[in-house]
């Protein structure tokens, strides 16, 4: 589930009087997602998504997220367009939470990733990177190298209960990444959480990308690394080189990568592994008992990290320099 805040009928009715999107027919909580409270809002004028922003989302970051979605949509990228109210604002408050309404996107996220999904993803990712080039608001990535140590320290003790020696492995990895992170590669706006549950397809066509609430300015190639982890490993933890090749090739057809970016992929993939391992570990050890949301497995990312640590160079991802 992800409905942390219930919205009473009279409050949603009152909320909608601020918009020109008709009257409420129904409001249904959405079971998927982990970060925010999401509802399908059916009005006399159509379908929308109502989001109440919860724990990890800083209110001051919302103009960046909503502005970025608006910017991408204006450039032809299919994503949830924020709906402005009668006063022109797309961000207001509901039930004590910051809240916004966005357009409903048709499509389903792929339950079983096929090579064609990776090809479509690579292309759309590169299109998003190009479209974001003239987006004016900045948001540094609070979950990049500078932010990892704090998360690591916060779950140091309990992390050992999950796997003996885990904390030391993560500390060593952090030290290595901190000393070797390739900070000078091309930067831009990245989605930073383009996992399969955030990318919708209708049959073989990518129909849209959702969930922009980790978007930030960072290394563009780091987004590819995040997606190699999220899309190119099989359930038995083996790396699928065909999927990786398709993803990177499709990306390069739109935005060719520099040699430096390609060479950096193994270290970026290690960083991407550590980043998701840490936030999953944090959520795992801070998971309230009896909570509906099932935390994601941090150790899945330890396996990915080990794979990238064993990689000699980018040819292990099927890329010839
Ligand atoms: N614009 C949208 N159109 C259609 N469905 C959406 C849209 N935004 C969110 N959803 C639905 O809500 C679910 C959770 O959304 P998501 O943004 O991933 O939540 P969270 O930020 O809490 O992880 C998605 O898996 C999808 O089913
Ligand atoms: N993709 C992250 C968790 C963030 O969840 P989302 O529902 O907001 O995509 C992970 O897999 O660790």
A few lines on this structure:
The protein has about 325 residues and is an alpha+beta fold. The protein is built from ten helices and nine strands. It has a five-stranded antiparallel β-sheet, with helices on one face. The chain has a two-stranded antiparallel ribbon with strand order 6-9. The protein has a two-stranded antiparallel ribbon with strand order 7-8.
Structural write-up:
Residues 27-257 form the Aminoglycoside phosphotransferase domain. It catalyses: L-homoserine + ATP = O-phospho-L-homoserine + ADP + H(+). Belongs to the pseudomonas-type ThrB family. This is Homoserine kinase. The model has no long low-confidence stretch (mean pLDDT 94). The chain has 2 domains: 9-103, Phosphorylase Kinase, domain 1 (2-Layer Sandwich); 115-317, Aminoglycoside phosphotransferase (APH), C-terminal lobe (Aminoglycoside 3'-phosphotransferase, Chain: A, domain 2, Alpha-Beta Complex). 42% of the residues lie in helices and 15% in strands. The chain has 10 helices and 9 strands. It has helices at residues 9-16, 62-74, 115-131, 145-154, 156-162, 166-180, 220-231, 241-254, 259-285, 299-310, and strands spanning 24-29, 37-43, 46-52, 92-94, 97-103, 187-190, 199-202, 205-209, 216-219. The strands form 3 sheets. A 5-stranded antiparallel beta sheet has the order 1-2-3-5-4, covered by helices on one side. A two-stranded antiparallel sheet has the order 6-9. The protein has 321 residues and is an alpha+beta fold. Bound molecules: adenosine-5'-diphosphate and the ligand N[C@@H](CCOP(=O)(O)O)C(=O)O. Adenosine-5'-diphosphate binds next to loops.
